[in-house]
Design a protein that fits this description.
Blueprint (H helix, E strand, L loop, with lengths): L1 H7 L1 H26 L2 E6 L15 H11 L4 E6 L2 H9 L5 E5 L8 E9 L1 E6 L17 E4 L2 H4 L2 H9 L3 E4 L2 H9 L5 E5 H13 L5 H4 L3 E5 L4 E7 L2 H16 L2 H10 L5 E3 L2 E2 L2 E5 L2
Parallel strand pairs: 1-2, 1-3, 6-7, 6-8, 9-13
Antiparallel strand pairs: 3-10, 4-10, 5-8, 5-9, 11-12
Helix pairs in contact: 3-10, 3-11, 7-8
């Protein structure tokens, strides 16, 4: 009977093939559209040039949004204190958070490494500190970034616990100000964050020309610190990983990195230059 119907309706056969082709093209797109989500991502503090809260921009935020957009997801950033980001994620009020390391939280799915920070022990050159490893920080007055004792390894954690002049600061521009005004011996922070805030401190008048041009040394006593993003959903984590690889391959990531590198110029004015030297640990 079917063969007879097909012979009687040749137009149906001709229409069936193109219709099937259209369905095969549209179905993945429709499925992708259905699965695409508006995601709430927690960010604990502004860390320019990686996260710039004032403009809701930054290197990391653009990487996050671009990677998730590959699978159609959109991102809404929620700025919260660090402890609250952890609680909000556990309670399901957030879909993910940035800048974590495995084992910091349970019951979440960690992405591939999204970014690496080059944290340094930064000192004024004129103080002539011999800082070749973490133990050389033991007798120094130090202000580090928030959660540094958790993130920079066991030796640093031990040093911090035994050093009565060690403390942590969420607002990293304060670290820069304290170092350049000679109120502390060492600021422990990412090199790029230091340069950004040193520029801002001069441009806003927080630091004078003479203060900002003091030569500083970035003692590389820490290896680069890899950071992952944590998500509640394994599927979203997988989508992020896929997108992260895709934007690296197609050049999007490089374009984003180049854009923010322009914010880190060591030249402030015609006659004002940041003087930063590197010292590699032995």
């Amino acid at each position: 009977m079917n063969n007879e119907n097909n012979r009687l309706n040749p137009q149906v056969n001709r229409m069936a093939k193109p219709l099937g082709y259209v369905v095969s093209i549209l179905l993945p797109l429709l499925t992708s559209s259905i699965q695409a989500k508006d995601l709430e991502i927690g960010v604990s503090f502004s860390i320019p040039p990686y996260v710039i809260q004032e403009t809701n921009s930054g290197l990391e935020l653009e990487l996050l949004k671009s990677a998730l957009a590959v699978k159609g997801h959109s991102v809404n950033i929620q700025y919260l204190p660090l402890a609250r980001t952890f609680h909000a994620l556990k309670e399901g009020k957030l879909d993910g958070i940035i800048n974590t390391k495995e084992n910091m939280l349970e019951g979440v799915f960690y992405s591939d490494v999204a970014i690496r920070f080059q944290n340094c022990a930064i000192s004024l050159k004129k103080n002539q500190f011999n800082i070749e490893n973490v133990t050389d920080l033991q007798d120094k007055s130090i202000v580090a970034f928030q959660q540094a004792s958790m993130l920079l390894g066991n030796k640093f954690n031990e040093m911090a616990a035994l050093n009565s002049r060690y403390r942590e600061q969420a607002k990293q521009i304060i670290q820069v100000k304290m170092l350049m005004k000679q109120r502390i011996d060492v600021a422990v922070m990412d090199k790029n964050i230091f340069i950004y805030y040193l520029r801002q401190s001069y441009l806003t008048g927080t630091l004078t020309k003479d203060e900002v041009q003091q030569e500083v040394i970035c003692h590389k006593v820490f290896p680069p610190t890899p950071y992952q993003f944590a998500f509640l959903s394994a599927d979203i984590r997988d989508d992020f990983n896929y997108g992260l690889a895709q934007i690296k391959q197609d050049g999007t990531r490089l374009a984003i990195e180049n854009k923010y590198q322009q914010m880190l110029s060591l030249t402030l004015d015609d006659d004002v230059t940041i003087r930063l030297a590197n010292s590699t640990a032995h």
